[in-house]
Design goal:
alpha+beta, Tetrahydropterin Synthase, Chain A, three-stranded antiparallel sheet, 11 helices
Length: 278
């Protein structure tokens, strides 16, 4: 049974990828309405896709990032809403800040735990519902991330539109901020090649192989040659998409890994989280 593709579905994929309307319609039709498969389909056809790593889950809202006083823990969260009219409202921003403060003060581990925390005797879940009723928009804590490390830096970018956390193995506040800004700008998928999820590597290689096979210049070439070319292009993906291999945004003459070593030969990024609005 075929899946009905609506105009709203097509528009959503356009917003996610920047592809044309007809291409989005065909991508969704060919993949029975599966958005992830449709994005891969577009990429295999050689199209540049605007958003590949989930930055568009929350349309509007307030993103905050904060660490504990000892910088051992960091939290970033998104209080989402439907319009920028609400997200820019001072009361809404203050409400989001009160939720963040409660998360830090109560050492919260996840969204479920956060919803049960009380502010002035009322659970956050109930306060969110009250706010929803008074504003008339769907709101909620749509994203929550936490890092624990020897030293955690937090960074908020673009008027509460993105939050980044970076966990280091040593206290280095300046480095933490620089690396957080790198992550905000370049959106790496992992710290290094070894930490890229196997399914991400497989997905990228499959897309690369299909692109090579669809190139008329590669017609009739042996699979072994295609595989070698794909491995080379995959290495380029690792260079562009893993944190320590990326060119450092503040000095393109070095990688982020080089920058870390220049500050301390033993300094390492242990983890990072990036939460963004679409």
């Amino acid at each position: 049974m075929s899946t009905t593709i609506t105009a709203a579905d097509i528009n959503k994929l356009r917003q996610m990828t920047g592809a044309g309307m007809m291409d989005c319609r065909k991508a969704l039709t060919e993949n029975n309405g599966d958005f992830e498969a449709a994005i891969d389909w577009l990429r295999k056809k050689g199209q540049k896709v605007a958003a590949l790593r989930g930055d568009r889950d929350a349309k509007e809202g307030v993103v905050l990032a904060k660490t504990t006083a000892d910088n051992k823990t960091g939290i970033t969260l998104c209080l989402s809403c439907e319009t920028d009219f609400v997200s820019k409202n001072g009361d809404f921003i203050a409400f989001a800040q009160s939720i963040m403060d409660a998360a830090i003060a109560n050492n919260v581990k996840n969204t479920e735990e956060l919803n049960s925390v009380e502010i002035n005797g009322a659970k956050i879940a109930d306060l969110v519902n009250d706010k929803l009723a008074s504003i008339g928009e769907k709101i909620g804590i749509s994203k929550f991330e936490r890092i624990d490390a020897e030293f955690v830096s937090s960074y908020i970018h673009g008027a509460n539109r993105m939050g980044v956390l970076v966990g280091l193995n040593k206290e280095q506040a300046e480095v933490g901020k620089d690396v957080a800004m790198q992550i905000a700008a370049m959106n790496p998928v992992a710290i290094d090649q070894s930490s890229v999820a196997p399914e991400v590597v497989e997905r990228e290689k499959n897309i690369i192989v299909d692109l090579i096979k669809n190139d008329p210049k590669m017609a009739g070439k042996p699979d072994e040659m295609i595989s070698k070319i794909a491995d080379g292009k995959l290495n380029a993906f690792f260079k562009e998409s893993t944190l320590v291999a990326q060119a450092f945004v503040k000095d393109g003459g070095m990688t982020v890994g080089d920058y870390l070593k220049s500050k301390d030969s033993d300094l390492k990024v242990l983890s990072f989280k990036r939460v963004a609005l679409g």
